[in-house]
Design goal:
Elements (H helix, E strand, L loop, with lengths): L10 H6 L4 H12 L3 H10 L6 H17 L2 H16 L2 E3 L6 E3 L3 H22 L5 H15 L13 H11 L7 H11 L17 H10 L3 H7 L8 H16 L4 H4 L5 H16 L4 E2 L3 E2 L15
Antiparallel strand pairs: 1-2, 3-4
Helix pairs in contact: 2-6, 2-10, 4-5, 4-14, 6-7, 6-8
Length: 303
């Protein structure tokens, strides 16, 4: 049994420890907003408008705990998320229909928008993964889907299945007024309280938000039409991602961790202790270099 929620030699660790996950997370929120019913649920039942940055940080915390938190931490967080979602309903003003926040098709959409955004963005930024590793990542993430109340077979388990799902759901997607406002929030969010000292630097967020926007699929950007489509944008976006990735990975860990809330940092510190106790070697921040007698990745053996 691994001392963390996901195995340290998993593709999940490779993807989620990549610092361009911040771009991927914003991109995921922009993509999720295109589902009219899901967006109405966020608009009516979350504090997204008052604290969009907090929403992103909570998502980062969920990803962190379900990646390198202890199995008990991941299970407890999942139970808490499911409990909150079970108690929430909202109304679609177009139909008058009442929906549950934990409605099955909405949970599947949120999961797939996140997984596709995390994988596509980090790979585009320069993370090297083979096609087989991409499939493994999507399959590994089907376990994370269980934390929000889904079964593994409710969600795609490989790249081809994920692509088919996204193509199938696309006719349902459109830009509602709420979606447009959500993207504008994400382009110019408020600075969270624990980073108040960085408030003067808020204008510098816009290039970061714009980069997230331009990583969206072309059809999604054409639907939003919030930022202009300029010649050479795809190439410039890829180059911008690679430069940002290089810069973010040069930031010392103790400075980088200031972005996260205390609970996330504490979970990471506890994970390091468990990994060292289990014989892993931790180098360059949270990078795990293996342990004596470790089972090679891809063997299908769980320790």
């Amino acid at each position: 049994m691994e001392p963390t929620a996901a195995a340290p030699d998993s593709v999940t660790w490779k993807v989620h420890l990549d610092r361009t996950m911040w771009i991927a997370g914003v991109r995921a929120l922009m993509l999720q907003a295109l589902h009219p019913v899901a967006m109405r649920g966020v608009w009516q039942r979350s504090d997204f408008r008052e604290d969009p940055t907090g929403r992103l940080l909570r998502t980062a915390h969920f990803v962190a705990v379900t990646t390198y938190g202890s199995p008990d931490e991941a299970r407890e967080l999942g139970e808490r998320v499911r409990r909150v979602h079970r108690a929430l309903t909202f109304t679609d003003p177009d139909t008058g229909r009442t929906h549950r926040v934990d409605q099955h098709d909405l949970l599947v959409w949120v999961h797939c928008a996140e997984v596709s955004s995390y994988l596509e963005t980090t790979v585009r930024a320069g993370l090297r993964l083979t096609p087989a590793e991409c499939d493994r990542y999507i399959d590994e993430q089907s376990r994370t889907a269980e934390h929000v109340g889904l079964h593994r077979d409710d969600v795609p388990r490989d790249t081809a299945s994920l692509r088919r799902y996204l193509a199938r759901v696309r006719p349902q997607l459109r830009v509602t007024p709420e979606a447009g406002q959500a993207v504008r929030f994400l382009l110019r969010p408020d600075v969270p309280e624990h980073l108040a000292a960085l408030a003067p630097l808020r204008p510098l967020w816009f290039p970061f938000g714009a980069l997230s926007y331009y990583t969206l699929p072309a059809w999604a950007r054409h639907a939003y039409r919030i930022l202009p489509e300029v010649p050479g944008a795809p190439t410039a976006t890829t180059e911008g991602l690679r430069l940002l990735r290089a810069g973010l990975h040069r930031i010392p860990e103790h400075h980088y961790n200031r972005i996260f809330d205390e609970a996330t940092v504490r979970s990471a510190d506890e994970a390091k202790k468990r990994l060292v106790a289990a014989g892993y070697r931790i180098e360059e921040g949270f990078r795990v270099r293996g342990r004596p007698g470790a089972v090679p990745a891809g063997t299908g053996v769980r320790r």
